[in-house]
Each structure stands twice: as structure tokens, then as C-alpha cells.
Amino acid sequence: MKNIVFINGSPKIGEPSTSRHLIDIASNHFNDANRIIIDVQKSMVNHSSQKDFEVIMNSDAVIISSPLYMFGLPGMLIRYLEDLYTFCMQSGIPERGPRVYAIVNSGYPEPEVNLEAVRVIQSFCRHINAQFRFGVLVGGGPLLLSMENSSATKKPLNSLKEAFSAISEDIGRDVLQNIDNFIIPISFPRRLYLFMGGRTWLPMAKKNGLKKADLYRKPYQA
Questions:
Q1: What is the pTM of this model?
Q2: Which Gene3D superfamilies does the UniProt record give (predicted)?
């Protein structure tokens, strides 16, 4: 039985996370494996990182699910990976680490913007002798949570199932094959998606004591 570790890299607390939602969908493709889910935020707060690092490095495969923050990985996840690297340096880097897969979702409708974040994970794997395999780049991630049962998410959800099936099959292979990243856009009018996304900032601003005009301020303008 394979040991599969899912790492949730979302820093969200007390609210739904697209990254965790994608892990829940993906885990259904590994019913014949020993599945372990590690939440980065909880791992760091509970001071269980060292124990979790042992689990990660002794696994057969690691699937990292993360949102895109400022065209990169969240700072908390970056710090976690840095600590994992330090752990490997102190305990000894293995000759061959686990296979690693990256799932990165963004609020942008274009999934290609996630590529640099995937490359960061790929580069990190080289430093700990882990075997990076491929990434799953998801555009319009929040839509998967808010409109999961609508026609707009039917096609991307089917594409996600294909990607997760590919990960499952790849983990089970003895001989590795070259597999390209999976690019998964949303099936929704781009202009309408951007309009809806922009509207969500208004109640968030009000909740934090701001007005609409405050969203257009340029405090760093010379």
C-alpha cells in the first residue's frame, strides 16, 4: 500500500479553502492508499512540523495543494518548505525522495499564471532529491467552491478528475513517463467573472471599515 501525503498550503483560518477542497476531490482517487493530510498552518501552530517532516520524507508521494498569492506561493508555505529543507540537511538528504505533484489554484481565470509557483516547488524538489513529476494549474479556483454544482464548473471538474487519475496512475508506475502539466481553465465568461470578482471586494472593504474609494487609493505613489 502506497503512503500518500497531501499538503494543504492555504493560510486561511476558519473559512472554506479551495486548496483543501481540491485535496478532498483528489483523495477520492487514492482509496487503495494510506492517505495523510497535513495542514501547514496547523502543523506550524501546533509545533508538529518535525514529526510531519518525517512523515513527508518517508512517503511514496507528496501532493502539494496551494493558492496563488501575488503570483507566487503563500509566505507561510515557503517558510514551511524552507524548514523542511533544513530538516533534510540535518537528518540527511535521501538518495531518492518521494514523488511530488503540485496543485496550484488562483483567482485569475487564466491558469497559466500559476506556472511560476509550480516551478518554485519543482526547484525545491531538486534540493532534497525529491522527484517532481508535474503540476495541475487551476484557473478561477474560487468558482469551484461557490458554484460547484453548476454547468460552469462541470468541464473543469471533469478535467481535474483526469489530472488526479493521472497522478494516481503515475504513482503506481515503476517506470516513469514524461507527463506535461495539466492546464485547467474555468468555463465562464471572462468579463463576467472579473466583474463578479471585483464586487466581492466591496463587502470585504466594508467589513474592515473601508469605503469603496479607499480601494482606489495609491499610498505608494510618488
A1: 0.86
A2: 3.40.50.360
